[in-house]
């Protein structure tokens, strides 16, 4: 596990205490290992480890295969223990507690209700159970003096044929905590166009959409997300860098040109929900290298793309948003201003009314200003 010292910026600023926003955070990818053990025992689910530390290590080992399909297999275990109302509510409640512990002031939790019906729950009952847990978690942290806002992102599995049904579910619960829609799962071979009816419906309902794209597939996937999905954000989106071409370079600078898709995404400030550690684990950035320093996030950031930083799956990557920011700071020399920019980008991208986004931005600015003043 990472130590607290690794989360310190020069001057002693504790990254964990800085206000943060988490936009790409999977509910079934953020369970506490001890919770998995306890729920598995209660429901007769086989677990590949006997202690929470061993189970945490098992997830890391399994998820370092370097490709998305193997990475996704670990969800068989987490989903298996999230098939009851009590299990879903507990996981959601603890998820909110963990976000608050990480300094997150606004989080969007994405998950796929269609994967949680094995023990008789209806789609609506799963959403209600998760919302119940979220509200319990918010109450828990508020008693500790921490304010946090949480929204659900209802996800359809892109390889299944329930997109429209799940889109209707999301809209049905827009007054019960659901703020947006997503499609996830095996990306290659399952473009957003396969769910065009769902996206047409969501557009007619003025309902926000983010789409996993540019992670396990390239520019065609991103193009379909934008055209067929009308995506307001791109889930990961890092392979947009395939549309950035080096023109020339010298000892100090690299000069590039943007292809039409990259130009569109940058100029229209379509947010990229990057998840650095996860992107390395799934091979999303293998075209550029195997280490964090090779990740195209810095290129995208320097070119003015609206980059946000996320965890994707805390359990699978053994990470937190604090840790992701710390790793980026170490790799690319980012300072407090850079980390603040990532949070302001996320605030602007949140699926909230503009007044609420502005309040988030103000909270971010105040928190980072306080941290800056502590250095004086």
From TrEMBL:
Zinc among keywords: yes
Family, per entry: Belongs to the metallo-dependent hydrolases superfamily. Adenosine and AMP deaminases family.
Keyword line: Hydrolase, Metal-binding, Zinc
Cofactor names: Zn(2+)
Record GO biological process: adenosine catabolic process; hypoxanthine salvage; inosine biosynthetic process
GO MF terms held by the record: adenosine deaminase activity; metal ion binding
PANTHER family hit by this protein: ADENOSINE DEAMINASE
EC code(s) of this entry: 3.5.4.4
Cellular component aspect of the GO annotation: cytosol
Location of the Adenosine deaminase domain: 19-365
Identification of the protein by name: adenosine deaminase
